[in-house]
Amino acid sequence: MADTPLRVGLRQAGPIPLDVAFDCARGDVLAIFGPSGSGKSTILRAIAGLYAPADAIVRTGDRTWSDTAAGVHVPPHQRAVGLVFQDYALFPHLTARGNVLAALGHRPKAERVARADELLAQVHMDGLGDRRPDALSGGERQRVALARAIARDPAVLLLDEPFTAVDRPVRRRLQDEVDALRRRLDVPVILVTHDFDDVVRLSTHVLLLERGRVMASGPIADVMRRADLPWLRDAVGLGAVVDARVAGVDLERGLATLDIGGPALVVPAAGLTPGALVRVRVPAREVILATQAPAGLSLHNVLAGVVTEVHYLPGTSQVIVQVRVGATHLLAEVTGDAVSRLALTVGAPVHALVKSVSIDLHVVS
Amino acid sequence: MADTPLRVGLRQAGPIPLDVAFDCARGDVLAIFGPSGSGKSTILRAIAGLYAPADAIVRTGDRTWSDTAAGVHVPPHQRAVGLVFQDYALFPHLTARGNVLAALGHRPKAERVARADELLAQVHMDGLGDRRPDALSGGERQRVALARAIARDPAVLLLDEPFTAVDRPVRRRLQDEVDALRRRLDVPVILVTHDFDDVVRLSTHVLLLERGRVMASGPIADVMRRADLPWLRDAVGLGAVVDARVAGVDLERGLATLDIGGPALVVPAAGLTPGALVRVRVPAREVILATQAPAGLSLHNVLAGVVTEVHYLPGTSQVIVQVRVGATHLLAEVTGDAVSRLALTVGAPVHALVKSVSIDLHVVS
Amino acid sequence: MDWTALGVSLRLGVATLIVLLPIGLWLGHLLATRSFPGKALIEALITVPLVLPPTVLGFYLLVTFGARSPLGQAFASIAGHALPFSFAGLLLASAIANLPFVVQPIQRAFEAIPSGVRDAAACCGLSPWQRFFQIDLPLAWPGVLTAAMLAFAHTLGEFGVVLMVGGNLPGETRTLSIAIYDRMQAFDDRGAGVMAATLLVVAVGTLMLTTTLAGRTTRRG
Amino acid sequence: MDWTALGVSLRLGVATLIVLLPIGLWLGHLLATRSFPGKALIEALITVPLVLPPTVLGFYLLVTFGARSPLGQAFASIAGHALPFSFAGLLLASAIANLPFVVQPIQRAFEAIPSGVRDAAACCGLSPWQRFFQIDLPLAWPGVLTAAMLAFAHTLGEFGVVLMVGGNLPGETRTLSIAIYDRMQAFDDRGAGVMAATLLVVAVGTLMLTTTLAGRTTRRG
Amino acid sequence: PAGVQKPPVVAAAASMNAALTAIAAQFEQARGRHVDLVFGASGALTRQIRDGAPFEVFLAADDTFPQQLTGAGLTRDAGVVYAIGRLALFAPTGSPLTVDAGLAGLASLVRDGRVTRFAIANPEVAPYGQAAEAVLRRHGLWDAMRPRIVLGDSVAQAAQFATTGNAVGGLVAWSVAVAPAMAGRGTSVVIPASDHPPIRHRMVLLKRAGAAAAEFYAYLQTPAARAILKSSGFEVPE
Ligand SMILES: Nc1ncnc2c1ncn2[C@@H]1O[C@H](COP(=O)(O)OP(=O)(O)OP(=O)(O)O)[C@@H](O)[C@H]1O
Ligand SMILES: Nc1ncnc2c1ncn2[C@@H]1O[C@H](COP(=O)(O)OP(=O)(O)OP(=O)(O)O)[C@@H](O)[C@H]1O
Ligand SMILES: [Mg+2]
Ligand SMILES: [Mg+2]
After folding, report:
1. CATH of the domain at D9
2. Does the pTM of the predicted model rise above 0.90?
3. Structural domain tally of chain C?
4. What was the ipTM of the complex prediction?
5. Handedness of CA B83, B87, B90, B95 (dihedral sign)
6. Contacting subunits of D (3+ beta carbon pairs below 8 A)
C-alpha cells in the first residue's frame, strides 16, 4: 500500500562490495554519509535502476522496482526517481531550460515552459535559462541538475552531493528548497553528502557507510549522540541534534526560548515564531561544563543536568561527556584536564553552558 | 627576477565581466572566495592561458604569459601551471596512473612510473592506479586530478574547488599534502573554494570576489577581522584568524599555550611541539564576553582585553564586538541584549572567554 | 546538359537518404548500444557492398531481384512492374550500395555519447523512443550528417550498380553520372566536362549549404 | 582464382591506408580544431571524388597525371616511369578516390573530444604533437578505425578509377575487383563467383579481426 | 502505365554510339518516330535483357551475345548481322608512332624499345580486343609487346588511353577512330580485314518489341542506314 516506505536491500561481494539494507519513509530524508569510495553513489544508482548489484531488492509504495530473486528489474525510465548525478550529467546540447523541460514530459504541454522557468528560479538560476551547460559555471550547472531532478515530481528523490559546487548562502537556500519540496511531495529523499551542514539541516535519518557496509543508522538524534563513531567525529565533530518547539519569543531582547523537555534553551529570536518546530545542533566543542552556575557572562544558557557518560577519545587528550538535561542529551567535548579538575563522573551534577549564538538552528516548520 | 610574484590583472566588460588585479608571492596561498558564478574558474583559466579576456596581464617570475597590450599570449602548454579543473577533466582513455604520467613528461623516463605511484599514494589512491576514470568514485577522480596537477612540478598551482568530492578526514589529509607541496616547491598557489575550512587551513591571503570584482583582499588575518563583509558572514561566519607560536606544552594536562602577543591562549596539546607555528581560528560565535572573570568553568581561556569596535549586524539582533587582546584582535558575536546588559562600548574593558577545544587549530610548520 | 538526368540523380540522392537514414539510425543505434554474439561479424558484413566491384554487386542484385528470381516475380506481381529497370529498383540498389557509408559513422556517433547522459535521460523518465529523439539523435547529429553527406555524394557519383540495375533508361533510371559516362565513352569530352562541372557545383553547393545550416543549429557550443 | 590479383588488391588496400591515414588525420584534425573562412567549402570539396563517376574521375586523373601533363612529366623524370599504368599511379588514384571516406569520420571523431580534455592536456605541459598522439588520437580511435575500414573495403571493391588509371596490367595493376569484373564480362559467372567469394571472405575476415583487436585495446570503458 | 506511348528503347554496344545516334536522328526525321538509345557493354546489356530489361532492339558488337538471347528464347528470330567491325591503328598527336596498315612503324618502335604503353581492348571480354591480339600475333609483335599492353574495359577506354597520350598508340575500332569527336586527336589507319577474324555485329528484335521498334529494326537494314554505318567505320554485309 501507499504507506510502505522505500525499502532497499543490496548485497554483492564485488566488484563494488555492498551490504546494505534500509527503509526510508515518505517525507523522511535519509542522509548517507561515509568516506569517499564507500559506495554511496552506487547505492543511488542501484535504486534508480542504473546499476544492478548481484542481489538487489528495491521496493517503493506497492511497486517492486528490483528483485533479483524474482527476476524483476524495472527499467530506469519507469522508476519515478529524481536523481541529481554527482557529475551533473546535463544534456550538453540543451539549454538549462531544455534540460529541465526534458524531465517535464508528464506535465501537460502548455504548462511545461512556465514550470521549467519556475524551477530554475527556485534554484536561483533566473535569466540563465537560455545558456547551454558549457556556458555555465560549475555551481550553476549543479543547480540545473537539481532543478531537473525535481522537475520530474519524483516518487523518490535521490541527491548525490547536490550542493558541493555552490557557496554557503546559496547552499542554504537550496537546502530550504529541497526541504520544502520533500514536504510538499511527501516522498522519501536520500541525500549523499560530505557536508554535515546538509545532514543537520535536511535529514531525519542518518546512515553511516564504510566500504559498502552500514556502520550505524537511525534517526539523526540517536546517531548523533553516540560518542563511539570515530570516523563521524573526524568527519564532522560530534554534537547533539535536538528537535524542539519555540516556547516564547522576546522581540525586545531579540531572544527566543525553546522547549527541549526540561530547562528552556535561549537562542537568537531572528525568524522564529512561537510554536514553530526547530532543529538545533549543539556542537560538543562549544559546550562548556561548570560545577557551579557562573555569573556576569554574555552567555544565556546555563542548563543544570547530570553526567550520563564519559567517553575518553583514544589517542587524544579530549573527552566526550554526555549530559542529560531534562529529556535531552547534550554532548560536551572537554579536555581530560577539565574532567579531572571538575571531577566529572557519571551521575555527577553539572551545568552545561551553551552560548545562544553558537547553536546551529533552523526552522523545520 | 625570480622573486617577482605571480601578477595577474584581468579586465573585460563581457560576456563574463572581470575586473581583478592581484599578486601572489612564492609560497603564498591566495584563496579566491565568492558566490557561485562570480568568475573564480574564469580567473584560473585565464592564468592558465585557456581563456583570453579582452584585457589581460599574467606575469610570473621574469616571464610574461599574457599581455594583451603587447600582444603576448604564451600557449597553455608552455605555462608551467598545475591546474585542478572543477570538473576534473581526466583523460577518459587513460588509467589513474596514465593520467598522472601524462603530466610527468618533464621527468626522466626511468623515474616516471615510480613518481606517478608516489603521487597517487599521496592522494590516498594506492592500489587504484590501474582503474580508468569511469571505474572510480567521484572523490577518487578528484584525487587523481589533484595528483595530476601536482605531477607537473608547476611554477604556479591553481586549484579549482579541489576537495569538494571527498570526506572531511581525506580532505584534511589532502590539505596537508598541498600545504607541504607548496612549501617544498615554493610556488604561488591559488585556491578556489566554497569551504572555509580550506581557506583557514591552507591560505595566507584571501580575495573576495563578487560578479568579477574584488570586494576585499589581503592577508587572511586582516580580511577575517573585518566585520563589514555581509556575504562573508553568511558564507562562513566571522571569526579572527591568528598565527601564533606554541610557547609551552603540558603533556600531563594535555594542554598547550600559544603566544599571541599578550595573554597566552590555552589549547589542546595534541600534535603540538614547543616552538611550532600554528594557525588558529577563533569563530566569533564561540567567543563569550564577560565583564568579570568567572570561576569553576570547564573553560581555559579568560583573556582580558578592550572593546575596539561594536558592529550591529543589519537585520538581525546580533552584534559583532571586536576585542583587542594583547597584539591580537578577536571577534565575538553576541546578542544585542548581551551588549546592553554588559554595557559593551568601545574602550570598555572586557574578558573574552574562549573554550580551548572550540578553537580551530592547525600546525603551519 | 542533360537536365533530366540531373533530376533523376538528385531524386535518387534524396530518396536514398530517406530510405537509408532510418535504417542506418536503427542499425547504428543497435550496434552502438547493444552487445551480442556475432556483432563483429554483422559489422563486417555491412561493409560487403563496398568490397564488391559495383558492377558485380549490380549484377548480383539484378539476379536477386530480376525477372527470373522469385523475389523479383513477387515484387512484380504486387507492384505491377519489375523492380530492376525502374526507379524503385534503382533506389533499392542505391540503398544497398550506400549502406556502409551510413551505418558506420552513425554507429560511431552513438557510441561517443557518454553513458552518464543516457542514464540521466532515463532518470528524467524519457522512454527509449523519447531518449532516441531528444537526446541520442541530436548528440549524434554530426555523425548522422557525415553519413548523409557521404551517402548523398556517393549516390550522385555511383554508376556501376545503378547502370546494371537501372538499365540507363532516359528519364527513369539514367542518372547524370551515367550520362557523363556515356558522353565520355562517345569521346564527347566537352559535353562530359560540362555535365561533370554541373554535377560538382550542385553537389558541392548542396553539401556546403547542408553543413552550414546543420552546423548552425546543432553546434554543441 | 587469380591469387596475383588478390595480392595486388591487398597491397593496394594497405598502401592506400598508409598513404591516406596520415593525410586524413592531419586534415581531419585541422578541420576539427581550427575554424577559418572557407572551411565549409573545403569540407564540401573533399567529397568531390565521391561525386564524380569513378571512370570519369579516373579519366581526369589520367589527364592530370598523364604523360602530357607537367605533373606527370615531372614524376616520370624522377621515378623513371610514368604514373599511369603503374602501381604508384594506382595508389595515387586510390588515395584520391578514398579521401572522403577517411577525412570525414576522422574529423567527426576529433570534434567529439570534449574541450575540457584538450585543455587538461595542455595544462599537463603536453605540446600539440604530444597532445595529438597521447590524447586526441586514442580518443578519436573509433573514428579512425571507421575511416580505415571504409577506405580499405572501398579500395578492394573499387574498379572504375583503378581500371582507368591502372590499365589492367597483370601483377601490377590488375586488382581482384578488375579480375572479377573481367570474368563476369566474359560470362564466366562461376569464376567470378569464386573470386568474389574469396574477396568477401578475405575482406570480412580482415575487418572482423581489425574491429575485434582494435576494439579490445581501445575500449573506453 | 497505360495511355502515354513510350518510345521504344534500343540497346546498343558502346562502340555504336556515333553511328547509331546519327541513324536514329535520320529515322526520326524520315519516319517521325523517336527511339531512346541506351549504350553499354554488349555483355552487360545481354545480362540485363535476360533479367527483364525493357529493351526492344539489341545491337551487339559481336555475334555470340544475340545468339545467347535467341537460345534463351527472348528474341523474335536469330537476328541479322548488321555490320562488320574493322580495326584501326591509332596514334595520338605527338606520338613517336607512325601508323601504317602493315604495322611497320609499330614494329620498329618495338625494336627500339620505345613503346611505353600500347592500348587495346581486353581480349577476354571485347571482340575488338580479340581482333587486336590476333593482329599483333600475326605480325609477331604480341610476345614482345605483351608487358607493354594496357587493356581497356572497352574499345572506347582503350582509345582514351591513347588519346590522353598515355599510350603511344592502340588498336581500336575503326568506327572509334573515325568518329567526329576524334577529329584532330591523332592519326589512324585501317587494318586489313584479313589480318583478324571478322568482327560480326549482330542485332536482334526482342520478343517484347512493338511496332515502332520493329520499324526501326527494319530501318537499320535500309540503304540509308547502311550508308551511315559505312561512313562510320563499319563494313556492311551484303
Ligand atoms: N566499474 C567499476 N569497477 C570496479 N570498481 C568500481 C567501479 N566503479 C566504481 N568502483 C569502485 O566502487 C567504489 C564505490 O564507488 P562509489 O562511486 O559508489 O563511491 P562513493 O561512495 O560515491 O564515493 P565518493 O564520495 O568519492 O563519490 C569505489 O571505490 C570505486 O572505486
Ligand atoms: N561561454 C560563456 N558565455 C557567457 N557566460 C559564461 C560563459 N561561461 C561562463 N559564463 C558565466 O560566467 C560567470 C562566471 O563563471 P565561472 O565559471 O568563472 O564562475 P565561478 O566563480 O567559477 O562559479 P562556480 O563557483 O559556480 O564554479 C558565470 O555566471 C557563468 O554563467
Ligand atoms: Mg559518489
Ligand atoms: Mg567555478
Report:
1. 1.10.3720.10
2. no
3. 1
4. 0.86
5. positive
6. B, C, E
